[in-house]
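Backbone shape codes
____________________
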Amino acid sequence: MNLTPAYTYPSQLIPLLRQRGYAVVSATGVCELAQCRIEDLNALVASWNDLPPDNYLKDGGRYRRRRHSCFTVRGSAVEQVPHRAHWQPVEYNALHGGMERWFEPMEPAITSSPVWGQLMRALGDVGSSFKGHARDAAPWYVEAHQFRIDTTDGIGRPTPEGAHRDGVDLVAVFMIGREGIKGGETRVFEADGPNGQRFTMTEPWSLLLLDDARVVHESTPIQPTEAGGHRDTLVLTCRAGGFQGVQAEGAARN
């Protein structure tokens, strides 16, 4: 039995995020935040059927497909930056940290669509409000990941690294769709405390927002209930000051 998350009204999003470190917004709430139509969001969904394999999985699995692109968001200005590697320190990703992972970029038809810009501006506005910054005071550095976790191996692992933080300011996880699977429960825990919550995101375009400094998160493995079972998500990470990278990590340690 799936536990449905308690949805937050957009007007209460920032107070709740500050209070407990996470919030879940319905698809209707996402459309309100982004000032877009659900039909425009749904027009992006077909691109999840054309994701290349993730060839960096250290557990030897074949269950993950993804694309990755990076952007800056400053007020109403959204710019895609030259393609770059995804990199995380081992402190945040013990399994895949410390290595440059070059994934195929997102398709231009997605990143140049008006609704994509609306989503990115909405995330930037949430991040600025959450941190108490002026909307256009400084850019947010956003990494976007399209994920498909499938059941090719009989089991798929949305978070093979386990419960983790991402080393950013804000994490946004959009549920795109679930087909022919069971499992995939989301778990959010206090980083420095005993409390946690678990629920299963099932509504397409519902959104989980996480204060990455305060909570750790994971999703449980999925198993097929029919052939071709898979789980699709869009993950956006929002960071002030710059993208994570080998050079940035070296500067921080010196």
Q: What stands out?
A: Helices lie at 13-20, 27-34, 38-42, 108-111, 114-131, 246-253.
